[in-house]
UniProtKB/TrEMBL annotation, chains A, B, C, D:
Domain of life: Bacteria
Organism of provenance: Paraburkholderia lycopersici
Protein name per its UniProtKB record: Alanine-glyoxylate transaminase / serine-glyoxylate transaminase / serine-pyruvate transaminase
Keyword Endoplasmic reticulum: no
Record bears the keyword Cell division: no
Family: Belongs to the class-V pyridoxal-phosphate-dependent aminotransferase family.
Keyword annotations: Pyridoxal phosphate, Pyruvate
GO BP term (any one): glycine biosynthetic process, by transamination of glyoxylate
Modified residues (N6-(pyridoxal phosphate)lysine): 206
Length: 406, 406, 406, 406
């Protein structure tokens, strides 16, 4: 068997913004023997996860589960609703928005990339007024879809999806609203139905605390209607057959059985804790993390407090410091994985994930690893971030609702 | 946690032709915590599996691993090599060949479906002379690819891929040769390079003994060249970026980490035993299974002994018997899952899988479950299949190469 | 990691009469991380298992759980109740009764070994009239305890414990009744309170379907009273401190935490199925196993049908055949472990376990392995045992109570 | 399945001085299906662990492995070597030394309890001169054994075993030397042979990183000789039969199979890292922990720096503070388990374990939990212990020997 931890002892701290740490309960659920995907047990499993996942998306409409990782769900959202050469309005919030745009191009669509100049858009969320203005200008309705990222994993900036919906409506434009919340789902509040989203794209390896390998499209009736006209070739990603087979808890082709076991367990954990408590927990840990970055005297990538991500925090390095060299030092000395800077901010920042199965002490450990690694890298810090985080945590006491008898 | 076995006690026997039973070693390997897919441990894992999987396909050329189940790899083989409206010559060997054809249509290709009339093609392998004749007739080389299934999972019939290659060459035709060996790989001998296959499609949940969720394209240089001209839109399935990232053991988007753990373990098991011994084991178990069916006085779906599948055996029910009712009786009484009849043979047959992590006694158990279930269903049997299988096994003694010190 | 299966592929069949196969659910429960044995979670675990285990012993009195394997619980039963030099009446039912007697001698007790001559006692259960006669003769009440084995693991013979109780009462003798049901508990009906047993000894690795490592003393009030006078030195095995600490779910010294996780799961499985259904399942499989032995024309070790064990069946070899050579052949060819002959019957018989997590097809597989191995060993069989077992199973239809929606 | 973590999310931090956190690799190894304890695979397993464990004890003499938790190994050391009424010289280092003495009394021995007055002995290690003086006074050699604890788990104080050996030799006394290193083994240097120890007692759940359930006696020739004369009744604990069966890798009674799987894995991990590196790692983490306690302005239970434990650190509370109330606050808010104060120091201190599978960030997390919990408990701290620990760790850089290719 491969020995996969290169460090001699102790637990690895996986604080990238996904894959997030997979709880033992889920790893154990996933190790149940694979069953017949056409048998009665599978049907029961399928109905359970298809029902539960709707609660996470806050939707009463279909959620399609793909046996493929998240990039596939991006592709699915586009191929099901659009036709070759269609114009789509995409918004540059960061690296993942950029990748989604590139994917749209590869599929033969014509994405128009809206955003603030330079890296400014990488530090603020979507500006709905820009979208509204652009749509108003599109009097011929050439734009078929508006695509935005809810939680930019590359920056730690969220966007106000309800406001994007309002912008589209204000412009009186019929474009579909497609949203990527791959790293936001189950960590930040998300409301597919209430916000009027047409397709929501997500994946397993973030707030759902699963390994990568399954991904999602939550689908509105308007999107379903559009899919009947859409001309992009599609087979594997086609919604219709899947939704049909899902009625009895099955899939038209082989599903990713063991990840569905994990999903059933994750739903049990998340819905058992309650989404509101899950979101509050994320907010509190994110607050403590930002307190640490501030105490260090370092800059946070997100410059608008209204859109701080509860999922991850981007930490900007002082001028002249190679963020990846710092990350390497931290990894090698302290067995801690942080997210790298991607795209336009490569080498300029690293990202601390504080999502999913994370608690106060795990976050402190991660911040301790950062603080020590920054020092070993010769970076002058204004103060102790760990101490600031502890102050934050003890002054925002959230005694967990223990299941302990008195 | 979901309780997924509806039976009160004892182990489920999963004898469908895939997903095949996942060995404990692999389930355990898969339950290792998910790691950073951009970290050094992952790179080591990636290089290990990318190297090992080539040995399974018997190729020195790239094998692309997708974080998606097998149907996706079908799509990938087509979208990487073909353009909208291309004619492809497909061969009807059974239900999965039919599904692949339907998928090609969905993608906007023009598949031409060759084969024997009625269900005759479902009982014999590919007839290379038909392919040769058709290609000779295609003097304008409108046909861009020939697509055949190596081991028809719906029937238990294999096809002679080397002979198909010879047929194409004899016709002097430039079409690509695309082969599906989703259920054949690592159970039946397969030689991607030697047989001159351009794209081989496979999946994880059969001979590789993994859960479903990853799939493969082994790719020839000719296929790579074709991919540069191919016009079908593609992004998630695109070979170029993946092969590029694979050089260091990484993927351009999030891979299915925990299934790759399992793949590393599976490669260790299969290459440790040795492919030749693995194939011989499958042949022996298949022989015992057919001895049982013959003893029962029932018909085997495959009528040409030259192309009996070592992976599964299709058992045809006597006229008037509903095969699915028999399967249900067997499942409910004996906690044994068998493959259903698919497509043209729905209700007419069931399939016994004897692939992957199967041994003599597991096969006997499955045959015992069939024999008892057939009797409980009121079907008159000529004799005991289990007894015949035992005779076969003891007269084809294969004392395993035990790792026991004398 | 050690590779522990010497066979190249497929599942090992563990059909010794214990350790019995440990279900995946239990292995998974046991792999939960070890917790603080003085913390609140542990207290909840402790109270759960201490409550549940009483239902298995059918007792309202304390059940002491030791972090030690079964032999320790034998020692505990004696050291808690007896004093150096005490006479105990033990009954020779087979090898384990003999070992218990030897253990008593090692502890400085004076066991008197009652039984039928030669190996006759190894083929029949306890004869209560012999016990009654011996106790009547003991007018001075020198005998302090009567020790019998409920299910002799070495022979496949049970004994009527209620009848032993009646014999003691009929003799008007005050001796304690100590019973070993290490291999009987949770497979054969057992009633600690109703049968008036003073100490019942059991272990984890049989009907409870756990790995070895924890063991039990169910204790009557009379035994507790005796323990206050008993003079054998004791510390680790002392009941008083354990029972005291158990009130809050704890132990006075470090318990075997992970096996207690497994026990909680096992109790959930067994009590969920219902003890009566569990016992009926064992009886049915035992019946099928004996049908096979009869069909082979071989002798069953137990000669009194009234006391056939539902747990295991001893199969006597024809004169001149070395049973261990047969077992070795079966193990090497078919990856099947059978129980060896022990003590007086060494080399004369082997034992087929059909307890715990066993179902129809697992038993058939085991019988198939035996039948083929017997043939490979050159032993002439009268007929097919597997066929006879299938006939038995289909004529004793026990369609399991499936949790399948209609 | 029992849900055993009462906290809603994130990983529990188990920082009691044992059970220590069990690494995933070991939990996974332990979940391999239980095998026949008399079969060939088991023999291979047995020989592997019996060989490896000697390297941990640094002995060429037998190490007996019991399927019982550590208290049993205490009992075994005494019952194998002593006779009823024997005088043994025991040394009061703390609560576990006291418990061992009580156990000796329960077994009918006459322990004489040496030590410094009050709780002074609980803050310093064994004083060898006191032992030497007492033995010199025992001219009639009434004392049969000297019993000391190598690493007092209740205090965080070690003792110099080599010096105890020299003291015995200097007195020219024939008493056996029995040492408990239940919590020291594989964390602190220990040399059974070189130090002339006659019986070393240890357990699985500390430095070996296993769950509780197996325990050890390393045995000298002199101890073996003594065991032939020793008259305490013994059966389960008897060395002779076990050592005899161990020659082929087996045990005379049912061993704790799944914990032996874990032991094989643990040996692989520890011997793979190298004992010297393991010890250095423990020393470094212990240094960081003490730096934290000092920075808080709190007292360390151990007052002699020469005998600081590398395994755990006892933290004394300010006068008037209930240590268990602080522990409860820490547990409830931060999901961190600390060791309670035991015996004479109950309520006065808590213990931080930093043994086994621990690394820098796990220790920091634990210290962070303590620091926040102390503050929430209203205890004034002089400074930040976490900051001090980070300073210690970065100034004692131990870049781990990573298995990373350059």
């Amino acid at each position: 068997m491969l020995k996969l931890d290169f460090h001699p002892a102790g637990r690895h701290f996986l604080q990238i913004p996904g894959p997030s740490p997979v709880p033992d309960r889920i790893l154990r659920a996933m190790s149940y023997p694979t069953i017949d995907h056409r048998g009665p047990e599978f049907g029961a499993l399928g109905l359970t996860v298809l029902d539960g996942i709707k609660k996470i998306f806050k939707t009463a409409q279909p959620v399609v589960i793909y046996p493929a990782s998240g990039t596939g769900a991006w592709e699915a959202a586009l191929t099901n609703t659009l036709s070759p050469g269609d114009t789509v309005l995409m918004y540059e919030t960061g690296h993942f928005a950029t990748l989604w745009k590139k994917l749209a191009e590869n599929l033969g669509l014509k994405p128009e990339f809206l955003g603030l100049p330079g890296t400014e858009g990488w530090r603020r969320g979507v500006q709905p007024d820009l979208i509204e203005a652009r749509l108003r200008a599109d009097s011929g309705h050439a734009i078929k879809a508006v695509c935005v990222v809810h939680n930019e994993t590359s920056t730690g900036v969220t966007s106000d999806i309800a406001a994007v919906r309002r912008a589209i409506d204000a412009a009186g434009h019929p474009a579909l609203l497609l949203v990527d919340t791959i790293s936001g789902l189950a960590s930040a509040d998300y409301r597919h139905d209430e916000w009027g989203v047409d397709v929501t794209v997500s994946g397993s390896q973030k707030g759902l605390m699963l390994p990568p390998g399954i991904s999602f499209n939550a689908v509105s009736q308007k999107a379903l209607d559009a899919s009947r006209q859409a001309k992009l070739p599609r087979a594997f990603w086609g919604w219709a057959e899947i939704i049909e087979a899902n009625h009895l808890g099955y899939w038209p082709y082989t599903p990713n059985t063991n990840l569905l076991y994990g999903l059933a367990e994750a739903l049990d954990m998340i819905l058992g804790e309650g989404l509101d408590r899950v979101f509050a927990r994320h907010q509190r840990l994110a607050g403590a993390c930002r307190a640490a970055v501030n105490a260090w005297g370092l800059e946070i990538q997100c410059v608008d407090p209204a859109v701080y991500s509860p999922v991850l925090t981007g930490v900007v390095m002082p001028e002249g410091v190679d963020a990846d060299a710092v990350r390497k030092t931290i990894y090698e000395h302290f067995d801690l994985s942080l997210g790298t800077g991607l795209g336009k901010v490569k080498g300029r920042m690293f990202r601390i994930g504080h999502l999913g199965d994370c608690n106060d002490l795990t976050l402190l450990a991660a911040l301790g690893g950062c603080e020590m690694g920054l020092k070993l890298s010769g970076i002058a810090l204004r103060g102790s971030g760990v101490t600031a985080a502890m102050d934050y945590l003890t002054s925002h006491v959230a005694k967990p609702a223990l299941k302990v008898a008195a």
